[in-house]
Every structure is written in C-alpha cells, then in structure tokens.
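Figure 6 in text form: structure in, sequence out.
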C-alpha cells in the first residue's frame, strides 16, 4: 500500500466494483486516493484461450476453482464463479436483458416478496449508461420501456425466431447481449461458437476489453492477491478493511468502503465484522433453468448469429405472478443441439427456460471455521417456481402452435445458472433488508454492499446488466 489512509477502498474488480468506480471517479476530485483489493490476479484472455485449446500458460496457476473457495453444503447445487481481475466477466455468457418494471414492484402488483426501494424509472438512465459502456447489441422494440437504438444492431434471427417474432412482436425479440453483433471497441463480431465462457474471438464484453480506464486512473492503486475477510467497525463506522496477502495479515484504512466481492464473500466479510442484522446472508438463490428441445416436423431451423439468439416473454409478465413465477425464454442457437436422426439433424429448436425464484429464509450464507471461506446452505426451491414449471408444461404447446412441432422434450433442471442473487437485500425499511436504495448498509453508513446480493427479489432475467446499472446509480447518488 502506498498510503496510510484512503478516500475509498473497493473490494473486487468485477462488474459491481468496476461500474461503481467508473461513476465515482467521474464525480470526485483529482487528488482522491482509492485502493482496490483484489483476491486474484490478472489472467489475460489470450492466456485463458491457450489453456482452453490445451496449450500451456504460465498464468494457469491463477485458476482458482470455485469449489475450494466456499463450503457448499448442498453439492447437488452448483455455484460456479471466477475470481481474479474482472471476476465473472471472464466466464459469463453476455446475456443482458433489462428487468421488467414489474420486477421491482412484486409486492404492490402481485403480493409477492417486497418492493425494491428503487424502481425501473430510477434505473432507466443507468441502464442506458451500462448498455453504452458494454456496447450492447439489441433490437429497437422491447417488452421493457426503452427508447431508441441499442449501441450495436440486433443479432440476426433464425427461421424459428422469425416465425415467433411475427406471431408475438415485442414479446419475442433478438436478445440484448454483450456478444457483439459487429466489430466494435476492440471486440470482434460474435461467431456463434457457443463457447462463450472463453470467447475464441473476444466478442463478448469483459473487464479486460472494456476500456473503462478505472484501474489505469492515477488515483487508483490496485493490489492483487489481497483476500478481504473482515472489517474493523467502531460506533457503526467502518474504519479498516482486513485482508490476507501471501498468508500475512494486513489492514487498510479508509473513509468509505465498497464491497464488490460477490454475495458469498460480501456476506462473509459482513458477518466476520460483527454484522448482527438477522437478514445478512439470508434469502439468497438464483433462477431455475431448464431446457426444452422442440422437435420440428419437416422444418429446418437455421440462421441466427449468436448463441442466445432471442428472448421470449410470453410466459413472463401478467396477473399469474400472484400465483406462480415469471419465466424468461432464452432461445439457444448452439451447434450441439442437433437431432441424431437421418435427414432431421436441423429439425430442432432449443429453449432454455429461466424461472424466477423467491428469496427464502432457509437458503443462507454464513461463516465457516475458516475466516476466508463462507459456508453456503441452499436447501429449497419455492412452490411459486415449481408451479410455474407445471403451468409452462400446460401452456407451451399452445404458445408454439405457430410452429410445426413434432414433440417437446424437457431436460432435467440445470444445477446452476451462474447467478448468485440476494444475501444483502435492499429495503426501504431497515427491518426488511440489509442495504438501502443506494446499496449503503442500513447500520454502517460509510459502507456500500454492491452486486446482485442487493436485489430485493430475483426476477426471471439475467442479473448483470441490472447490478451494473445499480452500481452506477449508487455512486451517482452518493457522491
Ligand atoms: C458461467 C457463467 C455464465 C454467466 N452468464 C451470465 C449472463 O449471460 N448474463 C448475466 O447477466 N449474468 C451471467 N452470469 C452471472 C454474472 O457473471 C454475475 O452476475 C456477475 O459477474 C456478478 O458481478 P460482480 O461484480 O458482483 O461479481 P464477480 O463478477 O464475481 O466479481 C467479484 C470480484 O471480487 C473478487 N473477490 C471475491 N472475493 C474477494 C475477497 N474476499 N477479497 C477480494 N476480492 C474478492 C473476485 O476476484 C472478483 O474480482 C454468469 C455467470 C457464470 C459463472
């Protein structure tokens, strides 16, 4: 560390931290001192690609299996994540729809969960900003309110997409995505390789190719290998961040602290710091995803220009959310979904169905005997979600009746979606959550807890665009 005291200490270099820093640095003076503590290291995309191709890389030593970073009490449920510079931007798949306005008002509209202390209109300008910073490709008409064009044009539809778009209009759209539809800002055009975890042509947005400029800013000092595990708190003010580096103990002193680790580690840090809020760590989870294969009678499904070509909203919004969950359709265009039948290889479409879930108290994150490692207890899905699956099975054949469907085949639900949500949920009333509408801890007023941990309810949509917009919003409102 170069300084004995910092204006801001940020934990992590993923989406949540980086978008927060981007806004913060645009608002504060040139003499600010910012310390960023990152547990991992910089492992460049080019080196990851080499390893993916079976070649050696000296950077391979920085691969940190997620299974060793947490104690997972339910091994049937997986929680993959990547640590190191850029966090999960290195491994994500780049699906970036906005939430629907109703996602923020589940209690007042449907009597489910709680309303968020922010709503769609509050986040709208920050959605635009995040979409611009990630150069999102997307269509002009969307089911959520959005004016004008996305930064990049939409991806191309497949044959099945064209029929469904003609039938359902703005309820069936080209997916808004961070997989570029055109070469732009140093990224190539997506080649639909369906290996997005490490994109072979560097088409998806990552924090390495983002050109955000935050970690190059002269006000910012970035320390790698610094694993944060606690905070020193006096009279409800956070004074210091406690971390280990190369097995040694360190402390960093700061005016303001922003935790952008991920819900597991943010919770671990808070609990180790003595946070007694009974909701800290409680009510975390993610959407439930399952695949349906649509066998087509005499129709080849070709075309499309990216891995998830389209999003269908026909099972998403409406009065049914009083009784069962929203479902977002992700329309896959992966070459591995083919039919092993002569003459019918391409007579297939494949949808991933994402069902929202509820933040249940019995799903929780806590500390373990090792102060660096959180313990993760995920025991149940809500009946709200399971009812939505039953309803989907009844209604999907009718929804797809514009296609020549031979049969539908449902696969077992996936063990993960890669979306870790909740644990430090936002609320207006301090009794109902952990952070306020600006992601500031209700009790420790100089502490931001960033990321999807703050989501009050889960939504059926992928979380990262929204958590990035929330980071921009929080930093804009607070500084
Ligand atoms: C395979 C996969 C595919 C996905 N695809 C999508 C998608 O298509 N669309 C979508 O919306 N979402 C997707 N996600 C989810 C998305 O990646 C996350 O929502 C997003 O990365 C969360 O951002 P974050 O900044 O909060 O956390 P992260 O990206 O996890 O970043 C956390 C950062 O904190 C650091 N850190 C962690 N613990 C500590 C500590 N104790 N001390 C110091 N530093 C620490 C990490 O090294 C990292 O830099 C996917 C996830 C996975 C795993």
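Output sequence:
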């Amino acid at each position: 560390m170069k300084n004995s005291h910092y204006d801001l200490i940020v934990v992590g270099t993923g989406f949540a931290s980086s978008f927060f820093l981007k806004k913060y640095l645009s608002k504060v003076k040139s003499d600010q001192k910012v310390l960023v503590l990152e547990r991992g290291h910089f492992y460049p995309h080019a080196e990851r690609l080499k390893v993916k191709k079976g070649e050696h890389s000296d950077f391979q030593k920085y691969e940190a299996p997620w299974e060793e970073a947490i104690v997972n009490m339910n091994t049937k449920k997986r929680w993959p994540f990547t640590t190191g510079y850029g966090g999960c931007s290195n491994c994500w798949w780049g699906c970036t729809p906005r939430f629907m306005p109703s996602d923020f008002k589940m209690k007042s509209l449907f009597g489910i969960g709680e309303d968020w202390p922010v709503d769609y209109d509050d986040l709208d300008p920050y959605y635009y900003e995040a979409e611009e910073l990630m150069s999102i490709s997307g269509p002009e008409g969307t089911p959520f309110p959005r004016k004008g064009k996305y930064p990049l044009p939409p991806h191309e539809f497949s044959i099945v997409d064209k029929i469904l778009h003609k039938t359902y209009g703005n309820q069936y759209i080209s997916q808004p995505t961070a997989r570029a539809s055109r070469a732009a800002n140093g990224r190539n055009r997506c080649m639909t390789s369906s290996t997005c975890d490490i994109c072979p042509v560097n088409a998806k947005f990552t924090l390495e190719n983002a050109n955000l400029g935050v970690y190059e800013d002269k006000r910012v000092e970035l320390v790698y290998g610094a694993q944060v595990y606690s905070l020193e708190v006096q009279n409800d003010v956070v004074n210091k961040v406690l971390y280990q580096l190369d097995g040694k103990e360190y402390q960093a002193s700061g005016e303001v602290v922003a935790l952008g680790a991920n819900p597991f580690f943010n919770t671990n840090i808070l609990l180790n710091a003595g946070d007694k809020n009974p909701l800290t760590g409680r009510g975390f989870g993610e959407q439930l995803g399952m695949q349906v294969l649509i066998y087509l009678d005499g129709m080849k499904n070709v075309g499309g220009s990216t891995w998830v070509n389209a999003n269908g909203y026909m099972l998403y919004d409406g009065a049914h959310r009083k009784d069962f969950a929203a479902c977002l359709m992700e329309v896959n265009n992966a070459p591995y979904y083919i039919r092993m039948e002569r003459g019918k290889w391409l007579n297939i479409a494949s949808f991933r169905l994402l069902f929202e879930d509820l933040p249940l108290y019995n799903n929780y994150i806590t500390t373990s005997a090792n102060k660096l490692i959180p313990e993760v207890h995920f025991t149940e899905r809500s009946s709200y979600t399971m009812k939505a699956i039953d309803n989907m099975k009844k209604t999907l054949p009718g929804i797809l009746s514009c296609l020549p469907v031979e049969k539908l085949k449902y696969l077992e639900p996936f063990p993960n979606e890669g979306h870790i949500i909740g644990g430090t949920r936002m609320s207006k009333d301090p009794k109902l959550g952990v952070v306020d509408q600006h992601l500031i801890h209700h009790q420790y007023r100089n502490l931001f807890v960033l990321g999807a941990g703050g989501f009050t309810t889960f939504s059926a949509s992928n979380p990262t665009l929204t958590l990035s917009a929330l980071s921009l919003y929080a930093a804009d409102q607070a500084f």
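Caption detail: Residues 93 and 196 are 5 Å apart (CA to CA).
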